[in-house]
């Protein structure tokens, strides 16, 4: 039996915004996610709190991992050397794909009305 | 198993697995030839090993699709197959044609094979992936038409569902687009233009319909989720696949002499091509999360989930990586393409066929699921093959980046062969990952021979 739709709505919205931030509108979707999290920070629904907390935390991590680390690789490495490009491109590709796949897992759990903790990066408190 | 005639799928699946093993062996031979150029030369030259590797892939996947169709369509149509005898006759014709073609590649010089098989009457040979001699191509058409007649009659007289209709449309599309392999214009631009109507419109068009139908069928069976829910997902996924994939053909037209507007059309539409694969991943995980029962065949569930993930990575992410025209200007025809090709074929089509085999084979052998030990071995094979394929892809991507730098970006660009020497380390690593893949495949084959009491749902 599916849980009532309204119980899942904000959880699904949070996961969708996390994915949109990664795939379509970086930054903009994060701002909407921030607004959503602020609006529902005192929600009595643990599903909403769980997914909002997870997606917000991991979105911040995603920013660091996808902007910060590549910037360090570019600064430390020599961009005139192909080895730097191999490391940089493979890193961004793998890191981005992993974050998207985790978002897919989170989204499917939200649709199913279940809580989800992102491996390694997610917060266990909500 | 509900209908006796579904048993015709079994020989198709066995042949598919046998040819899959052949494909991997030739992949390893060819992988070694990348770094030890004269390995097995002159017995198996590189061009022959490559042709056998890619043709075996196509043929075994076709066997897999046909087997899946012969299993799935009677069950969905709620009636016996129109003619199981015709399906079996076609199996032997297709197998004989496939084996003779491969033996022809291996033992007869290609030019002589072309002469022997009537290429002078209608020249269709000598093009990548469509190297098959004329009689083989005609044989494929005959087998496909007989199969479509058989399956269409079954559906027409039985229940129509989204799954069997999507499967049937996919198979009709497969047969229709193959007809372009007989069109071989003298103008090389036109030749390439229509060559993609077979190659692209198969793998990024109608095959996605077949894949979606197979995945939906298995997910209904192993999760018990309402058919209506799964069918809605299937409709949206195949709509997205066709909307993006058909005009997405344009990403092959950037530099072949086709009009320049294809750079825009190809870029925009193929940038959207990851969407159906993304949806398939969400679909598979969502259905498993919403499952109404625990199915004893855990290996089949794992393969189904793996299909979603790996298809998204291989076809979606690695496809997007080099699909935009300004990026493709540099990456075209490099090892980046090979990386994408390997993971996309494995993730989308190899895994979905194995999903189907994993679900149906125990049923055709009289049990709901294999023994727990057999399933553990099968799941080991899943992880070994999948992780090995991830590494093959990563090593080829690294080789591709270095190749592009050396050949196309550097101030002093190297020749193709000089650049190949420089990326040899990655080819060695790829070969190592290939050996792991072979071990995984051998474990997979071995899992069929492990006896024991059938697993039950927890």
From TrEMBL, chain A:
Superkingdom of the organism of origin: Bacteria
InterPro entries per record: MamF_MmsF (IPR019109)
- Is this entry keyworded Calcium? no
Q: Write out the transmembrane intervals.
A: 16-37, 58-77, 83-107
| UniProt topology in membrane | Multi-pass membrane protein
Xref: Pfam families = MamF_MmsF
Provide this UniProt record's keywords sorted from A to Z. Answer: Membrane, Transmembrane, Transmembrane helix
Location in the cell: Membrane
Record has Membrane as a keyword: yes
Name this polypeptide is given: Cytochrome C oxidase subunit III
From TrEMBL, chain B:
| InterPro entries, per the entry | Cyt_c_oxase-like_su1_dom, Cyt_c_oxase-like_su1_sf, Cyt_C_Oxase_1, Cyt_c_Oxase_su1_BS
Q: Does the keyword Translocase apply?
A: no
Bilayer topology annotation: Multi-pass membrane protein
Keywords assigned: Cell membrane, Electron transport, Heme, Iron, Membrane, Metal-binding, Oxidoreductase, Respiratory chain, Transmembrane, Transmembrane helix, Transport
Q: Where are the transmembrane segments?
A: 12-36, 56-74, 86-108, 134-151, 163-183, 195-220, 232-256, 262-288, 300-321, 341-361, 382-405, 425-445
Q: In terms of one coarse class, where is the protein primarily found? A: membrane
E.C. number(s) listed in UniProt = 1.7.2.5
A single GO cellular-component term from the record reads: plasma membrane
Does Hydrolase count among this protein's keywords? Answer: no
GO MF term set: cytochrome-c oxidase activity; heme binding; metal ion binding; nitric oxide reductase activity
Assembly with partners or alone: Heterodimer of cytochromes b (large subunit) and c (small subunit).
Q: What is this protein called?
A: Nitric oxide reductase subunit B
Q: Which organism is it from?
A: Thiobacillus denitrificans
